[in-house]
Design goal:
Length: about 250
């Protein structure tokens, strides 16, 4: 389904991804963990076309997508959420999901100026369905900026569900959440996001990774240091070492 073949990425003199190779089977849910700055977001950025790779290939469904732009990649059924949320704060919750269908707000200038925000009916139905999936149907007319963080992260997930992608990347879906909020997010991912899709989940909260992932890849300083089942990976010496000796189960 997705093959990352020896991906390298540099920023200036710093190599932030050093020959990362990962094979992901269709339907699998893979965790991607590692200390701050280890390259998790950079890897998502390369695969989703936000950044070019300096070396290596990304092969998706048998097709080489290395170097394609993010819009082309998005059209091929790949979607992501952002660690630093990328929403439209002054648009409503529903409008934020509508906007996801086109990658940009789905309105032309006339519609923006005259407030005639008619959207494609098919898109609107999908937006409403997606908001139901994440438990935000009742918030649809609120401005996004008024939502608390856990709901904003759900809104990001609604934006990807609305497009029904085959492959999803979640970048810290429980970032900034309490333990109870994290558990609710883990349930949402397991129930609504991963079934029928291939998923890669980046998260520091290992309880969420252990709950939703069948396999965990660990990055440290741009190098893949482990690729194992969750119960194995958290006890590997090189993983414990990467986290400075801290046991990371349920961190
Ligand atoms: N646009 C950029 N320009 C320069 N350096 C960058 C850029 N983006 C990321 N980096 C560097 O690349 C390295 C990897 O960053 P990345 O954001 O992928 O880490 P991460 O594993 O996602 O960390 P975190 O858990 O904190 O989100 C870091 O050293 C970071 O400073
Ligand atoms: Mg990151």
């Amino acid at each position: 389904m997705l093959s990352l073949e020896a991906i390298c990425k540099r920023f200036g003199d710093v190599e932030v991804l050093s020959g990362i190779s990962i094979e992901i089977e269709k339907g699998d849910t893979v965790g991607l963990v590692g200390p701050n700055g280890s390259g998790k977001t950079a890897l998502i950025n390369v695969v989703t076309g936000m950044h070019g790779a300096d070396a290596g290939r990304v092969v998706y469904g048998g097709r080489d997508i290395t170097g394609l732009g993010s819009h082309q990649i998005s059209r091929s059924g790949i979607a992501r959420t952002f660690q630093n949320l990328r929403l439209f704060p002054r648009m409503t919750v529903l409008e934020n999901v509508d906007a996801a269908h086109n990658g940009l707000p789905g309105y032309n200038l006339y519609q923006l100026i005259f407030g005639d925000r008619e959207v494609d009916k098919n898109h609107r139905q999908k937006s409403e369905w997606a908001l139901e999936q994440v438990g935000l149907a009742n918030e649809r007319d609120r401005l996004a900026k008024t939502l608390p963080l856990p709901q904003l992260r759900r809104l990001e997930i609604a934006r990807i569900l609305a497009r029904d992608p085959k492959l999803v990347f979640l970048d810290e879906p429980a970032g900034g959440m309490t333990q109870a909020e994290t558990e609710a997010m883990a349930m949402l991912i397991a129930d609504r996001v991963t079934p029928g899709r291939t998923s890669i989940v980046v998260e520091h909260k290992m309880s969420l990774i252990a709950r939703v992932c069948r396999r965990v890849c660990v990055l440290n300083a741009g190098i893949l240091i482990a690729d194992e089942k969750p119960d194995v990976v958290f006890n590997l010496p090189q993983v414990i070492e990467a986290y400075l000796g801290r046991r990371i189960v349920n961190a």
